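WARN retry 2 of 3 for item q-0093 after timeout on previous attempt; input resubmitted unchanged.
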Amino acid sequence: MTLYSGTIDPFSQRCRIVLFEKGMDFQVIDVDMYNRPEDLAVINPYNKVPVLVERDLILYEANIINEYIDERFPHPQLMPADPVMRARARLFLHRFENELFCHIDAIEHGLQKPADKARQAIRENLTQIAPVFMKQKYMLGDEFSMLDVAIAPLLWRLDVYGIQLGKEAAPLMKYAERLFSRPAYIEAMTPAEKAMRK
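OK item q-0093 returned
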């Protein structure tokens, strides 16, 4: 199993976290997004990372890759076993993409005005979910899940993205520290990602 992974790409980081949580045997090929290998465009028509290659199977899009890994290697299970809870988790993942991660491109590559607007949108959405963590340890309760995997790379990059959260987000920041202290999270980080926070 080989993962083509961007060294500072938050979507690639999600896949690395899942692979390390599963304790699997895999290879990571670090991809410099400013100097992409030619075979990346061949295996992914969007010429983006992450890409998972396993024998004849080629998958792209972080959520699809992670669900495949979770189903193929069920321990520990990161998506809920119950179909209703699993559907809810997928809905949350969809919302993360549309309400949080869709703004990352504007922050990383946009002009000042769209970038500021994107920061504001992320700040508001994160502040909205912060109270959840006054009552529970992780996104779905006491169990670490795919939702925690999905949001962790964004929380790690808040300073880099210039997103300051207010006091009302304190429960969210405590939750973030819980995520960052997980052994698999630490192992999954690239040196470039570690350097994002001092």
